[in-house]
Design brief:
about 280 residues, 2 helices, 12 strands, elongated
Length: about 280
């Protein structure tokens, strides 16, 4: 019996010693983990020194609408964004052009839309969320009270929220604006140059893998005259049809508060488009 107990004890001790790692093996594992942590830290430090994406990113949207009948109409739209990044710097150009004409049953041709807008923005990124900006914009609309509108000035841009499916950005700028009335709308009270401010919010939602919703809202107003303001809204729904092409629909509202008699304050545009990203 004693021999059986002794044999069992010896066997159990042998099994425990076989399963327990040796002190040398434990030390080697700890050293390997330390070396791996140091290598990962060095890799991250080296990657942080690489230049950021320096490619030019381009998005173009081309829209077209045609109607036939008593009145034949054609409407074209082209809007997009071109952006270049280097280090903490970026330069972005956004533009929007709309053109339309109509032919009646008698063959008379009439221009119905002729609008161009462009905005150039330089940004310097202080942190992942906050950037300083300088923005310059120009708008020419043949069917508005103005011959053209322009502005330039500094501002800030803040990335308020970003996740895998949503993104919210906000911008604010202090601007010097210069507007010129069309010749047929003379006004003694009109001031060409004035101080103004602009606020802008953009929101993006990836509804499903190939369907996205984007919303842009902006408001620009004179500091001296609260009645002199401009508002803009663009709602867009787009779906990926390939790696570079998307199809979608957009609805734009362009509002000008001070207009001449006979001119609509609100200009609405509904368009279907094909988008190209490269």
């Amino acid at each position: 019996m004693k021999k059986l107990i002794l044999l069992s004890t010896t066997l159990a001790a042998t099994l425990l010693m076989a399963e327990a790692p040796s002190a040398e093996l434990t030390a080697d594992i700890a050293a390997a983990k330390t070396a791996a942590d140091a290598a990962n830290a060095k890799l991250k430090a080296l990657e942080s020194k690489l230049p950021q994406n320096q490619d030019i990113m381009t998005n173009m949207k081309l829209g077209y609408m045609k109607t036939d009948g008593n009145t034949n109409t054609e409407t074209f739209s082209l809007d997009g964004k071109i952006k270049k990044e280097w280090g903490n710097n970026s330069l972005a150009l956004v533009f929007d052009a709309q053109y339309g004409n109509a032919d009646d049953a008698l063959g008379n041709n009439e221009l119905t839309k002729n609008k161009y807008f462009a905005e150039l923005q330089y940004a310097y990124k202080f942190t992942g969320s906050l950037s300083a900006t300088v923005v310059a914009g120009y708008k020419d609309d043949k069917f508005s009270t103005y011959n053209y509108q322009s502005y330039v000035g500094p501002g800030v841009k803040y990335k308020a929220y970003k996740s895998a499916k949503q993104e919210l950005n906000a911008e604010a700028s202090l601007l010097y604006a210069y507007d010129e009335l069309q010749d047929q709308y003379p006004s003694e009270d009109f001031t060409n140059g004035y101080g103004s401010y602009k606020a802008k919010v953009t929101y993006g939602l990836q509804i499903v893998d190939n369907l996205k919703f984007d919303q842009e809202l902006s408001y620009r107003a004179s500091m001296d005259d609260s009645e002199n303001y401009f508002a803009y809204s663009k709602s867009e729904l787009s779906s990926k049809i390939s790696d570079v092409f998307s199809a979608g629909i957009s609805y734009k509202i362009d509002y000008t508060n001070l207009v001449a008699d006979g001119i609509e304050q609100r200009d609405n545009t509904l368009a279907a488009f094909i988008s190209l990203d490269y």
